[in-house]
Amino acid sequence: MAVVGAQGARTWQSLISSLVAGRDLTAQDCAWAMARVMAGEAPAVPLAGFLVALRAKGETVEELSGLADEMLAHAVPLTLPPAAGPAEAAVDIVGTGGDRSVTGTSTVNISTMAALVVAGAGRTVVKHGNRAASSLCGSADLLEELGVRLDLPPARVGELAGEVGITFAFARVFHPAFRHAAEARSGLGVPTAFNVLGPMTNPGRPGAAAVGVADARLAPLVAGVLVGRGTRALVFRGDDGLDELTTSGPSRAWRAGAAGTVEEVVVDPAALDLPPSSLSDLAGGDAPHNAAIARAVLAGKPGPVRDAVLLNAAAALVAADGLHGDLHDDLRAQLAVAAASVDSGAAAAVLERWVAATGS
After folding, report:
1. Running DSSP on this structure, what letter comes out for residue 21?
2. Pick the residue with more confidence: 188 or 339?
3. pLDDT digits (tens, 9 = 90+) for 326-349
4. What is the pTM of this model?
5. Residues in binding site for anthranilate
6. 88-359 placed in CATH 2.60.120.620
7. From the annotation, which residues make up the binding site for Mg(2+)?
8. CB-neighbour burial class of residue 41 (10 A; exposed 0-12, middle 13-18, buried 19+)
């Protein structure tokens, strides 16, 4: 049942009161809240109260869907050209960030490197990302350091998907209205539902996604939103707190189950013959530091970072191509594809083409 105020209209007070009472909101209630944010009509105090009350109650799939769908509806459009193939066939590989607060370690940009590997394997990648928030180097920071220009008009961003096989939807460009939430969020000091919206609001609307979520509480809910849309999604979180499939131990993964449900499975790197690592093996630094590591991985350097990149690239390939059965079997097959992308030089060639195509 939708929340309305005394005069029959939704208000911040009515939504917050309902949340404080422990009642779930509808998708329409949350869409109303996000619409106010997008219009610049959400005062910082009630918006902060709404986010904290929503977190305290515990978010639902319907509530996250309402927020994400409304945010996506206000995004700057990103259209893929015919050369890129249909958006349904494209894939995103992205993490929510926030794992540094859990692990105390800022890791290298695993998903960004994995995106290049996936593109080198011939899949169209539409990566959504931003600058660093809680980490030392975000996906946008790394790509700029590698020579990819990001200050491009949306039409050109779309064209690159066809010319290069990969493109980057810079969140601050495609979601400019989300800046209106900055004041409320900056004063809270705690993560909220807004921290996990990125992977659910890719303006290119790819049909597949491999998503890392650092917040164990929200990971299955993000999977529920994506599966509910019909996205071929594989959502995961390392048991070590990483928003990646980790090689330091098992990870939890969520994927579509029977009748639109979300199924949880365990991914064990040992079962994939990947040697164990530690978080320190995956530690990163600033953009120049992480760029040097990325170039070494793309050049074929073996070791824990390569293993983690290939594992996460395999997850994106599984999402892109579809789940066919046992997840370990699917990942094992795609690990070979990811390794070939690197060892053949295809992944490095994608980066070279991307830098050249952006004129950097």
Report:
1. T
2. 339
3. 999 999 999 999 999 999 999 999
4. 0.94
5. 95, 130, 185
6. no
7. 111, 243-244
8. exposed
